[in-house]
Amino acid sequence: MLKRKAGSTVTVLILLISVMMAACSGGNTNEGSPSPKAGEATNGGDAGAAQLKGDFEIQYFVGGYGDSWWKSMIAQFKELHPDLKIKESAGPKINDQMKPRWIQNDPPDLVYIDGAGGLDVSQAVKDGQLLDLTDWFANAENVDGEKLSEVVITQPSPIDGKMYTVPLVFGSWGTFYDKALFAKNGWEAPTDFDSFLAVSEKIKSAGIAPYIHPGIYTGYLTGGFLFPAIVSANGDDASILQDISDLKEGIFKSEPVLKAVGQLVTMRDKGYIDQAAVALNHTDSQMQFLQHKDAFIPNGLWLPNEMAKDTPEGFEFGYIPSISQAPGGKYVANPYTSPFAIAAKAKNPEAAKAFIQFVFTKKAAIEWAEKTGALMNLKVDLDGSQASEVSKGAIKFYSSDNLVVAPAVPINADVTKELENATLALTDNKIQPDEWADRMEKIAEKVRSQQ
Asked: Of the four listed, 117, 227, 356, 427, which is most buried by Cβ atoms within 10 Å?
């Protein structure tokens, strides 16, 4: 899954893992749940209000999510608009294949931005390649008459105050554990940092390392633990991530950031972080987790699908959005997203908008979950569907008021690299929090001076 995610978006999480996306989760091809039928999708909303005509081209990357959902949605949309000639520009290498057309100002109408070599949203905006969707998104309804801005889990990320993308995929970093192992040993899943430390002591006493992460790809640790911890330490105010994105002077020495870093040090000093983590890649760390050599692992929602062939019988994936909050504090979802965008030079922008409105429905979201094993960026009840148990559990967190969804903000690549290097050194007891902060402020200053 990892390489597919690297080009998805310029969010903080994606940049954190841009150098280490090396595998793809397998898609679930179950067909069991009812999907939105074209004839049923005309009540309310612009997408079904008028027949669309002409040519309409969609560019979408085919990776771990497969293409069965796309084929289904496009067929239903075609049924609703029989006079529309739809061209699918898709495949695992589509991003590279379409680059010349974007350069030559002959883009498709609609693009799903995902996969290696995917469109750089920030650069595309600077180059005037993407349509401003700000006003449209604020008022657009899906074909069921629901406002898009009210049914999505995470809102589009603004660039200079304007919106150019609409996140389609909603994934989230978090902490995984084996429910069966915990039940067998009478351990309770943590709900905050205090209970995490308490159960980790029990786990350690049982001869199992409490926590593993891939040291070679430290973005798992920063995405799955550190950034949620920073938000929690800032009183659940996620705007601090924007300060980090803006490289605000002194941000890495601020109280919330150092408090979050201090939590990692606490885990380190108590011996809860597996010392082998420093030399492990993502696959090796995940295998250790599946073999019960370690009890917790920071990872993304793709984990169960990615390791499906290696998961032992009886293993039950449990998922927690964050473990760093204080007792009584909210969970923090640190998401990664893959968005839609409409080309500024689209030949049929109305069809592109209508397609977005068509697929942002609960029925389409259920079908997405069943076919891909992942979540679409839409609040939906997956109970009764054939979606995975992890997806069902995760969506309950995302639909809860007891959750803060962190914003998707860009982070400079050089800062990201140093963040990962310094954090790994911290967990390996080679540096202390003040040295970590000095290193981060130094790289931030360097980047600021170059802007």
From this structure: 227
